[in-house]
Write a structure and sequence with these properties.
heterodimer, A: mainly alpha, ABC transporter involved in vitamin B12 uptake, BtuC, two-stranded antiparallel ribbon, 4 strands, B: 18 helices, disordered N terminus, disordered C terminus
Chain lengths: 286, 361
Amino acid sequence: MTAAILDGLVLGLQFGLLAVGLTLVYGIGGVLNLAYGQMVVVAAIAVSLAIGAGLPVGLAIGVGLVAGGVFGLLMDKTLLRPVYRRHGEPRVLLSLLLTLGLAFIVDGLLLWRYPLEGLTLHIGGGPVEILGVPMRRGSLLASSIAVAAFIGLFLFFRNTILGRAVRSVIQNEEGARMLGIDPKRVRTFILVSSGLLAALVAITRSMSIPVTVTSGISLTIFALIVTVVGGLGSVAGAFLAGIILGIVSSISASLIGTFLTLIILLGAAALTILLRPSGLLGVPEE
Amino acid sequence: MTSQGAETSVGGRSDRLSSRAIASLFLPVAVVGAALALVPLWLGDSRLMMGLAIGGLLFTCYVIAFNVIFGSTGQLFLCVGALAGIGGYGAALLGDRFGLPIVVSVLLATLFAAITGGILSWIAVRRSLGVIFTGIVTLIFALSFENLLLGLGDITGGESGFFLVTGSETFLRERIPPYYLFLGLVVLYLLVHGLLRRSHIGWAFRALRDDEVAAELTGVNVARYRIYGGLIGAGMLGLAAAVYAVNEGRISPTTFGFGEVDVVVLVMLAFGGIGTLFGPVLGAVVFTVLDELLIEFGQLRLVAYGVLIIVLFLWLPRGVIPTVRSLWLRIRGLESPGKLKSADPADGALEAVPEEIQSSD
């Protein structure tokens, strides 16, 4: 049981990290980015290609981060511009449809050009015992990166002027504008950050599971489930929901098998929408 | 029940269905049906081409059904494939595992699908989920269904699906007769949708699509009509898929997958015109042909689909039929497109969602 909970914690941190990039963009722009999984995949493929080209791993990871950030920047500057001109539900709906189209384009291009490419980062060394449970070094490193990312995000939102600007735009775009905050620049910043977070997901995930060109859709779905449970737009909610769902899925996988586990996760998301549409930590609308 | 009064007052409209209105529905449907009936004369020699043509008609059925749910009552059901799957797997399992006669298993499977759709609508209405949350909940339902099919491999055959005994040795497995069966379904669906639009249900649909609050205030029971939409649309999906399962003789989860059905249906409907009567036929025919033409491009076909989705929703959000119609009227200098809708409500495009998308531009 301890093993299942620790595994769940590792998984949960990954879930949380995955959801943050999606939930931030929703909170700030009302954009439901269905191409988010493809962002992760693009970053992963960039790292893999860079390693293949002979770059040292550290530099290759840098390439992946740049790829993710540029992906986000390009989305903000091109595809999402017509989306920002809408407001409320039509904005979410249009963003959902356009990013679905983008997801197809990215998937198609990657499958066409690099059908067999995938990223696996091997972290050497034997397992480390924690509470009597042997844990793989890759999982521990991935979890440490996720924790560091969350601490970084919390400090950023709490202590920096830009972080507060982002929070004010999430709460009230018009109000933020009146205070002299340019929502447009905050959005660009968040889209780029979302790309960087996606790259971070690609790197940490590939320490335990290979990220391949076909991983995009399932990554988006998992991110969506965690985001919905945590509350669309809430970073702390994504973290909390990630941990809870990670532990739930790890325990149920060890008790009743993998296929029901996904259904349980999906059921959790459905129940959250029906019982508490704003999610665990989301702010109820109206 | 607040809706009682509304029913009688709105119902008065439907009594005024003139013979002209009936003719203006039946005539175009007959023309479209007759045109599609000629396809086997042209392609009838090839089993492969007839299979494609039947697939095209199947998707026409799906798109009309989705149009009833999304176009008419504004419920974004992202579980078209799953509802169809209930019909398809239902008919296959009832026929093969329980040995029921074909007609009984098809009708029971249709009923299951309709009830599921009704329940989903009921949940969405009761929890007053908006378009987005309805989309997410139904998407979750679709994913769970897909997983259930894979997980219950003993019964469903898992990923590879199974071959049906039901329907073999009947006309359903021949080359041309099933085509006409599906054409019959398409005509039936068009008539059902057309008559729905002209009945008091159609008036209620339009009222709640134009302004849900106003509709509620004037006594339209929004909840009830949404559930009607879910029931009827899902029943249409289940019936078409059940017939397809016994016709094709083989089903697997990908027959009803999200990427294989829902996305395609959404693109077809958006292309033809959300809420229009004949948009689904146009969209399904164009994309069936296009899909076949693009087949040699392999993975780039996905790219083409992605580009099309983006282009459609950015520059042609109303779809081809409403755009062409208003262009035509403008060329003839008859009326401004804005007046058109009030002048001819029965034919006016139900462009709920795209219109919203456009209006705040």
